[in-house]
Amino acid sequence: xxxxxxxxxxxxxxxxxxxxxxxxxxxxxxxxxxxxxxxxxxxxxxxxxxxxxxxxxxxxxxxxxxxxxxxxxxxxxxxxxxxxxxxxxxxxxxxxxxxxxxxxxxxxxxxxxxxxxxxxxxxxxxxxxxxxxxxxxxxxxxxxxxxxxxxxxxxxxxxxxxxxxxxxxxxxxxxxxxxxxxxxxxxxxxxxxxxxxxxxxxxxxxxxxxxxxxxxxxxxxxxxxxxxxxxxxxxxxxxxxxxxxxxxxxxxxxxxxxxxxx
Length: 262
Hints:
By secondary structure, this protein is an alpha/beta fold. The protein has one domain (2-21, 31-260): Rossmann fold, CATH 3.40.50. The protein is 39% helix and 18% strand. Helix 3 packs across helix 4.
């Protein structure tokens, strides 16, 4: 695992060396302004970012193929990413899927939203800082243009969770959230929304009812079947459409190594 990590870090340094300087677009002709970010320190677990041809990246491409197939058949555009409980690899999976979608030959415009306003981690994994995020947009303290950024991945933008509000569920279950998704739908081909786990809090169910589908992460060897059933039950009660499950923390046997990727 050490050699793999070293290789990924080397790839990260080479890629970060090619980052552009921050640039603002003043004339957007009705489209959302996107700003590029520099000097990011991307987490090495975002393998498709560093090595799109790696074995792990190929697994995310399979997931991408399934998502894009549903997109063609059912106009799937807004997808909520959740899990039953904490620490099932949900956010890492969301990031890797977003990167892989943006790398598709069709070059879709992809937006990743960190809607976990309780303990959002996308900023941490991307190694960046942002003044505004989703909580500021929904509370009227910032505009979309203030809060949306683009990393060093073509066609991929993101909105962080913002500062922790005192009423995250109420902000999500609001007309402001519905209007935000409506506006974003007109600008992007895919919108991935990373949310808190569904069993402890209701946030994923709230947003899932506004989205086209929900994907649930399940950690292999840890999450009990009864907990998964309870999570699915909560999503169904919230009128969410579960479109699939992702099994995380699978061990892949590579030549001379066993690499746990989530």
